[in-house]
Amino acid sequence: MDKVLTSDFKTIGNVRSKKPRMSATDVNVYYGDKHAIQNVSLDVGEGEVLAMIGPSGCGKSTFLRTLNRMNDTIDICRVTGDIRLDGEDIYDDETDPVLLRARVGMVFQKPNPFPKSIYDNIAYGPRIHGLASSNEELDEIVETCLKKAGLWKEVKDRLDSPGTGLSGGQQQRLCIARTIAVSPEVILMDEPCSALDPIATAKIEELIDELRQNYSIAIVTHSMQQAARVSQKTAYFHLGHLVEVGETEQIFTNPRHKLTEDYITGRFG
Amino acid sequence: MSDSIDSLAASTKAIHKVEHSLKRRRVQEQRFKRVGLFAVLLGLSFVALLFINIVSKGYSAFVATHIAIEVNFSQEVLDPAGNRDLKVIGNADYRQLYREPLRALFPEVSGRKDKRELYRMISSAADFSLRDMVVADPALIGQTKTIWLLADDEIDMAFKGTLSRELPESERPVSDKEFAWIDQLKSQGKIDTFFNWGFFTNGDSREPEQAGIGGAIAGSFYTLLITLMLSFPIGVAAAVYLEEFAPTNKWTDMIEVNINNLAAVPSIVFGLLGLAMFINFFGMPRSAPLVGGLVLTLMTLPTIIIASRAALKSVPPSIREAALGIGASRMQTVTHHVLPLALPGMLTGTIIGMAQALGESAPLLMIGMVAFIVDIPSGPMDPATVLPVQVFLWADSPERAFVEKTSAAIMVLLGFLILMNLIAVLLRRRFERRW
């Protein structure tokens, strides 16, 4: 098959999923005058991991943050287009971003546990959303989430110690546990392993694979190997455009766009 | 081949140039270090001079001279009817009680003028202290006891040595005769100095030996209390709003510029504002700590707002993002996460603002806290004065004995200021970087 020319930015591949959790259509994001995301349409499918790859500054993190309206905190950022969670427009005037963020959780690049105890880190979300009606229920939620994040055995004896006292990898797992404590439907991960050592990274990748059974995950990653290991669907971004999207295996073995091929073979990025 | 030789020659030349300039750089650095050291030493020596000057003048005010008098609480003078009526006891003439024993100590003294000089050695406060003793415990009537009575301020100065004998008699308020009496009392062990509790508990007085900073301390306390209760919540709330919730537009920029300017406005302007608004327009009582507190609030608010904003800015955005990402609303993010982390910085700014407010006198002079306050104020609505204003009033007084009292009051004021700033520094150190 002929490779598509470099100058042609029309998206290649099927952006839609069979059972989409989140659905973005013709999304444009402007930072003041800068056109950061140009006409991107993409689905996050249920029970699957979508990896977003691309060179630095291509807009993957920006796109990820539009999915849970974290860009609202930036004054000069403007988002147009249609983004839906389970069919409901999340940028609608009536949608409460607070509720949205309880349904679409986020794990950040640098682990950022609250400067509170491990218990309070996990319990904070359920507390403010009223998910637990008693202290026992709260204890249960904390234990379940720590077990799911693979952290329970290591910290069960020191739930009152500060969350910031853990190692980098443990802190990131704590953040993941914190995110799943509010029972979201979608988890967004913005380069979750870039600040971690290889062993911690491996643990987190294992965790992502387990979480896939209960949550839909969209992960931005700089590492192509990680995308290949962890995801089922991969989307390649380039300078604010969604250039190619498809099954992970196909993208990495037989990319159809020239830009995708150049990036994967290491010619740039 | 010649290329490498050229480059070798060039690098050798460069090394020589660097070596030469190195010497010049070192000389400059030494000079700079010496200038800095000199500036620090100069500043420290001025501070030391100031402290030595004040302490040397003021330390003697913390003790007061007393004279031991054998007082006979005679029944005929105090309670002739014998029915222990407190009104009668309260109105009795207590001067007799100490004048008689005084004459007995110096039998050679005769003539009205000399006797008056003798009686003058005891402070007029003695009347009241004796009366208070008897009214509190009427069983004293009929007994004879040795009571240490407060000496007059000039005798106090003479005994402590502040007033020198070397001066010619016409130039000092204490005559040679009085000095002789003091020496005699000293040899008999009947004159001594005790810790001057009255300095801390009494209000202001025309008589220096009875004057104290008790009223000023109470006034300062109520004023600062009002200032703290008003400026801390308002300042913190304003800082939180401006930092977390306000949109960035022309109006908020203007507000920020204005707040920064207000922090630099001379404090007496706030006094004028307080006079015009609180006293003339709202008709609040003059000289009350309430009005003083309101004026000082206006003055301290910019400091607290600026310090609080800096504290809020220093909380890393990652914590805000983490809270928002979990689904906390902006209000919850601020109150549960940002505010607790910024609180130590805010407290430090508040303590520094309070220390500034404690030392202010100009704005309070404008709203009338210059009054001569004798009674200790019992609440924020009573007329009062504050410590710096008291220092100002005493510095103006003609009596010599007020010199040591002024310096002692300054020492107390400095003590409070140092304590408050120390607490601020310790707080800041303890809470630095908890994340």
- Overall structural class of chain B, as computed from helix and strand content, comes to mainly alpha
Strand order of the largest sheet of chain B: 2-1-3
CATH topology of the domain at 20-112 and 183-264 in chain A: Rossmann fold
Low-confidence stretches of chain B at least 5 residues in length (pLDDT < 50)?
Answer: none
Instruction: Sketch the major β-sheet of chain B.
Output: 3 strands, antiparallel
Shape of chain A: globular
Report, as a whole number of angstroms, the end-to-end distance of chain A.
24 Å
- The total of beta strands of chain A comes to 10
Order of helices and strands of chain B: HEHHHHHEHHEHHHHHHHHHH
Supply the CATH superfamily name of the domain at 20-112 and 183-264 in chain A.
Answer: P-loop containing nucleotide triphosphate hydrolases
Secondary structure category of chain A = alpha/beta
CATH architecture of the largest domain in chain B: Orthogonal Bundle
- Per the CATH scheme, the topology name of the largest domain in chain B is MetI-like fold
* Helical segment count of chain A: 10
Strand portion of chain A: 15-25%
Largest sheet: number of strands, sense, barrel closure of chain A: 6 strands, mixed
Kindly give the count of domains of chain B. Answer: 3
Proportion of β residues of chain B? 5-15%
Q: Percent range for helical residues of chain A?
A: 25-40%
